[in-house]
Please model this.
Amino acid sequence: MIKIKLLTLLNKFPHPIFSFFLMLIFANSSFSEQNIFKWQTVIPENQGMSSQKLIDLKEALADKDTKKLLIIKNDKIVLEWFAPGWEDSVRRHYSASLAKALVGGMSLLIALNDTLIFPDMPVCELIPEWKKDPKKSKITIRHLATHTSGLDDAEVNNKIQQEMKERGLHAHMDLPGWKGQFWRKEPDPFSVSRDSATVLFTPGSFFNYSNPGIAMLTYAVTASLRSTEFTDIRLLLWKRIYKAIGIREDEVSIGYGKTYQVNNLSLVPSWGGGSFTANAAARIGRLMLHKGCWLGVPLTDSIWTEKVLKYENTSIAGKNPNVVSELSSMRTENNLYPASTMGWYSNFDGIWEHVPRDAFAGAGAGHQLLLVVPSLNLIVIRFGRDLSDKTKGEGFWLAAEKHLFNPIMDAFVEEPYPRSESIKNCEFASESQIIRMAQGSDNWPITWADDNKQYTAYGDGRGFKPKTDIKLSLGFANIEGTPPDIKGNNIRSNSGERVGQGKNGAKASGMLFFDGVLYMLTRNTGNAQLAWSANYGKNWLWADWKFDVSFGCPTFLNFGKNYANARDDYVYIYSHDESSAYKIADQMVLARVPRDKIKNWRAYKYFAGFDKKNNPTWSEDVRKRQAVFINPAKCYRSGISYNAGLQKYIWCQIIPLACDDKGPRFTGGLGIFEASEPWGPWRTVFYKRQWDVRPGENASFPTKWMSADGNTCYLIFSGDDSFSVRKVTFFD
Model:
């Protein structure tokens, strides 16, 4: 009852000072819910995941000397495994630099929440020894927290490390100069970091992972506590966070078990030296997933929790070896280094391609990992030995993605939307009945013109027989007849054809015919571009503007012959919410334009969500776009058409697999969704993470090949790099 009244007051009087005092009350109150909270254990299928895939993951990780593995979805444990002797009830596991998030990041969050410090304040306000230093005086709290301060790391490059190893020297303890003093704690790592660590570059200009940088962050946080009851971050964390979320004292040890006295400050290491049970680490992940709220109790203000997790345009790991202490601080093909936020890592830019963009993580050497994905309500803990396969040159983050993140993403088999009540099943013709033509060419967006032919475009091939004499990135064709009696004819066009393999050449992603004009959307044109032909694809004109925000692989919504049976006078365009056709997104987006203004970019409006009456809203500002379809880390290329017989919009989507480097040309999934309006709500007709044949890069249902009742259709897809046609029957 007391808790409810306090929460009511918090909502009624949202003043930050009042909120702060209420949070103190919450954090120091022994609410029964906090003491009794336990994860529930369920079978993975209960949470839309595959038991077999998780078993395969567990076995693969066990072979790589994993000690603790915990996967939680919706507060339900779907997988919990410990190597013998490593059960949470028996022992903790060292966290290595995962402590930077669980200790350093969490103590920073509290100090920010309590307005003791601010992200962009100069650190020298709390470390006066830096005030007269021309470089260190320019370092901010944000710089330290995001590894962009320029402070050198207490490490040496890989070549020197190898030489030391060959000489029998320890990579840390035997280092010369201040770097060795840092690890040997001579006299202590904090004063060494403050007085001796060098600055490699102007603060904020580059990224360089730095243990001394995190040491100075904790120095500053501790200095900010002088006016509070907390003498050090260990006491701060236990009273404000750890105890409040039900972590027992025997589940956590931090700071190498030590406290250093410097300038009348009690300094606890936060860059490493921690050990946690999987349960303790998962509870911290859960708190951050819920934006600082634990079972309805706000331990930190959600605004600050969001701020420490949000990427704020700080420098990202780059490819310049001259500004890093170690090559492992660089973002390369073998080390997919994520962006750094204040204490955490962020997947905001999709560097982990198959992981949703809202994912964040903490990480330490040897792949001590905490991964949180809010959109999936997912928490993953992994402790153990290094996952990298050094023989294949796998860097830390590539190994984390390959051996942990991707297999978990592929274990999700849950359909993104409820099952259709109108189309309850669909049946595909056998693989042997698939028609395959124009081998070696892919893409195949298609539309139905007024001459009763269908017009399409192919990519990276020579089209139908007789094939073109050169390989085209963008070529054209028309299709005559009805399956199985169909014929494809190449259309040559000097003004429309393009060359260039893969992403280096323009390719069609959408085709639409109405009022005597054939329109085409092309991708790989930065981001996408409109073109049109008034003579059935022989000659093309190109718009002098482009879709330069999102819409990296746009496709038209097709209706009947010459746009017959269109719902209104608009043209609708769909795309995954990405600038590149080769990246995966969390959602799909939608634009529309009056059909008579399709060439005018100013006439386009973008789906911006629903109003209070659930009517779609539209904005001229593409930055206000909202998702029209959501499937985290699984939105890719697609084709959509209106089935007049069923009176449904049928959307075909290619679903890439995370653990297949070759892409959907060789293996992947297929989703078919229906709705009564172009903006949904969507229902699932068919969804397989791994289809029985190769789906290729694109798929759609041509409206010409739909039966009058809509139940018999033909799917065009680019599987096996061909113009592939497969009969599909829908059942109500």
